[in-house]
# Entry
Amino acid sequence: MANKSALTIEDIGVDFSGFKAVDGVSMVVEEGELRVLLGANGAGKTTLMDLVSGKTKSTQGRVFVDDTEITNREEHEIARAGIGRKFQIPSVFRDLTVRSNLEVASCVTPGVFENLRFGFASTAKDRVDEALELAGLTAQADRRAGELSHGQTQWLELAMLIVQNRKIILLDEPTAGMTQAETFKTSQIINDLKGRHTLIVVEHDMAFVREIAEKITVLHLGKVLAEGRIHDIERNEEVRRAYLGSKRIA
Ligand SMILES: Nc1ncnc2c1ncn2[C@@H]1O[C@H](COP(=O)(O)OP(=O)(O)OP(=O)(O)O)[C@@H](O)[C@H]1O
Ligand SMILES: [Mg+2]
# Structure
């Protein structure tokens, strides 16, 4: 089966008044792939996600979702093209139940109108149930979102992207602030999402990366330093010098 690219980044870059935080990055992520982005502090990982999601406008290069160019389009247009992003600060409605949060999220998804002809109510409910299941929140469905733990809140946010059927999901340090148990559960959730969604995950926790990683791209000073399987990345001398030897890695 030929693999189809979901996200194509061509020579993307941004120049912040003379400082190139991302400097000519090219990367092709296939449909259903889980790509991990590694790199030391300041390597340009978050900025790359900002460029893809439209939060930051690029000064060079191009970005495509499938064959549609989204370079420097507005954030809502890029969202409509299928890119979803989880932010560090949760955007859940604390007074609504977990299920209601997902119902609200599913109503703002661009694809929802296409589902109308198949019977909105049942489709939407099925999708909410599926997202609850995938995010491991079925037992929490009727709880107020404000009562959730830190980890559960992060999973709810992820579930909101799932229910919106975002084709490409960007996760910037999804396990930040989580306990070990929560981190492990997050790796299970992400593994379950492989193949259904295309995922790009920025993560520093190497134990977590080993749980989820397929292909890894290492950024260094705004450029791609290496790309490959975890085994090759961990043995790569340049990567060790630039990143794995740095103190961020336990
Ligand atoms: N708006 C901006 N203006 C100027 N410099 C910026 C801007 N945004 C980011 N930078 C700089 O670009 C570099 C890359 O930052 P970025 O946040 O992308 O790194 P990162 O790889 O996500 O690091 P971390 O692991 O610490 O999250 C840093 O030196 C940062 O200070
Ligand atoms: Mg960052």
Observations:
- The pocket of adenosine-5'-triphosphate (ligand 1) is lined by residues 16, 19, 21, 39, 41-47 (CB under 6 Å).
